[in-house]
Design brief:
Order of helices and strands: HEHEH
Strand order of the largest sheet: 1-2
Radius of gyration: 12 Å
Number of domains: 1
Strand content: 5-15%
Helix content: 40-55%
Mean pLDDT: 86
Distance between the termini: 25 Å
Number of strands: 2
Length: about 70
Amino acid sequence: MPGMNGMGVFQELRILNPQVQAVLATSFIEEKRLKEMLAKGLRGFIQKPLAQKELLLQVRKTLDAAWGGGPA
């Protein structure tokens, strides 16, 4: 979304759906900001460049957590 950072997009998604299952993919994020987003319901974080195995693992963990298979 042009003109928005990850936190802004995440907040908009939470407005549309408070139970949204979101994973952030970015090349850089401050640790403080990441912790804040995780505390607000972000399901995970993947560092760019993305490795296919890492992406699949995070998606699996997120789906499992959303459907009762364990924590993300």
